[in-house]
Amino acid sequence: MNILNIKNMIWNFFKKIATLNFSIFILLLISIFSMLGSFIEQNQTIFYYQTYYPVINNKFLFLNWKLIMNLGLDHLYQTWWFNLIVIIFAFSLIICTFSTQLPSLRNARRWKFIHSKYPVKLNNSLIFSSNLLNHSSVNMIYSLMYCNFYVFHKKKYIYAYKGILGRIAPIFVHFSMIIILLGTVCSLFYGFVTQEMIPNGEVFHLKNIVNAGSYSSLPKNLVGHVDNFFINYNIDNSIKQFFSEISFFDQKGEFFINKVISVNSPLNFKGITFYQTDWEINALRFKLGHNVCIQKKLVKIDIGNKIFWICSLPISFNKNIIFIIVNLKNQILIYDMNGSFINNIDINKKFYINKIPIKVIDIMTSTGLQIKIDPGVFVVYLGFFILMSSSLISYISYSQIWVNITSSIFNLTGSTNRAILFFEEDIGQISQIYSEYTFIKSQKLILKQNSCDILRK
């Protein structure tokens, strides 16, 4: 008896989990926490949260950095409680699919004849009865098949249906959501994201990890090289697009691939995607005299919503000259310490200060790359494709018709799960075709037979 009670409790628990209301509630929780994760910046330092979410004078009411850190809202999608909610939602969908959707599909494919002599009232049903003579099962079957119904006939009973895809589609809606969740979990545990700021012409490895799954691994036998970085400008000197030409080798120096990437044109190589995300102007490289090379770091400043890069080069004990870069296309501007314009120069153009030849050899730039492995992205896209397709297909009406025909009794009952107006049109068309072939033609046949009898007499 105790075992039976335990089984009943477990069964009741599963039935509650599989209900539509429970699934909607869990989905609502996931949506709320996902929006919260979009609102709160993820994977930042504790100093960042202390700055923007202070305990005192907090403009977000109860949301402060202590609460964020304690609940794990700084990495919400990796927290155990969020993953538990996702697992419960997937569990609910699986139980609902196998306990409700699949049995209902099997029931929908079953031949269901109604043996009652009287019309049966169903939800969204239409009933038609007639006591006229000369009813025909063959004509009714033809009328149903003409309207694209699948027809089953047994003695004086007829069962027909159409739109079975409308009953199958909700099952695929459930499966697609499960596939999306599996893809998300796969990305969570096996994906990683790194960000690198790489000087032009330098070799780089994947090491600056921003986010990594528990079971992810960095590709070890991969070396990258930034061959070139350049920027295209519009007529008004605003940036149109920036590009990085990168090459990849193995640790033995064997060449793999070379490609120019941009913001909207990433490189996908061996399941790794390389995105162009940022850039920097770092320094100027000078050649003083004939054999002395130095580098001076550039400082980025914003003046009147315009960006400039500035560095100074000492030319005497208490005297400097200032180099200003507006962009990578125009000439470099030279000013003295009083702000007086001295000259504008091109790269590798020699000029003289105190009779010393000086040349700007290079403007040293860096390209910002985001490197990402996301093995679950294909699974998620597949899930969304199935979800959208099955959601559209689910709007197909599933209609059923039961007919009971004898020589003097005709009962037709029809039911549909949606689009009752279209179903009424189907019933009207079926009735029209059936009447045409059963009554009108039979009357013509009777008239023809009577005329033949009159002629014989």
TrEMBL record:
Main location, first listed in the record: membrane
Membrane topology reported for the UniProt record: Multi-pass membrane protein
GO terms of biological process kind: cytochrome complex assembly
GO cellular component, one term: thylakoid membrane
Chain ranges passing through the membrane: 20-40, 80-105, 126-151, 171-193, 378-398
Source superkingdom: Eukaryota
InterPro entries, sorted: Cyt_c_bgen_Ccs1/CcsB/ResB, ResB-like_domain
Domain ResB-like: 21-287, 344-426
Record keywords: Cytochrome c-type biogenesis, Membrane, Plastid, Thylakoid, Transmembrane, Transmembrane helix
Compartments in which it is found: Cellular thylakoid membrane; Membrane
The protein's role, per its UniProt record: Required during biogenesis of c-type cytochromes (cytochrome c6 and cytochrome f) at the step of heme attachment.
UniProt subunit comment: May interact with CcsA.
Family: Belongs to the Ccs1/CcsB family.
UniProt-recorded name of the protein: Cytochrome c biogenesis protein CcsB
Species annotation: Erythroglossum lusitanicum
